[in-house]
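ZP: hey, is the adenosine monophosphate complex queued? I don't see it on the tracker
AM: it wasn't, my bad. submitting now with these inputs:
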Amino acid sequence: MSCVFCDIANGRAPAAVEYEDDRVVAFNDINPAAPVHILIVPKKHIPTIADVSEEDEPLIGHLIRIARKLASERRLEGYKLIFNSGEKGGQIIFHLHLHLLGGWDRKPSTVSI
Ligand code: AMP
Ligand code: ZN
């Protein structure tokens, strides 16, 4: 089964990569919903939050730590971290990813992703 985020994680598809280590890759969203919109993606293919096992929990903590590091490097004073989960939760790509959104001048009224 082909998966665009597995392809990006394996270097088989292009992306504007902002951070990478042995467990995650972070890249700019192709259709940004905020001045800063970065996706933090585990290299392991996990479809949704509902598929996260107990052994994956440190990996979820790592995603949040990397989001925090990227936000701090960009001097974001506030930001949103979002996991869309399932079709009815607005998820389009079924490879787990954490959205980091920020860079607004003031509190955003709504963000739709
Ligand atoms: P979600 O609705 O949570 O599944 O979000 C998927 C996100 O992936 C959307 O914000 C898309 O704009 C973004 N996206 C889809 N394909 C790519 C790609 N090839 N490179 C970067 N971002 C992508
Ligand atoms: Zn995948």
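AM: back. The chain has one domain: 4-102.
ZP: great, adding it to the tracker
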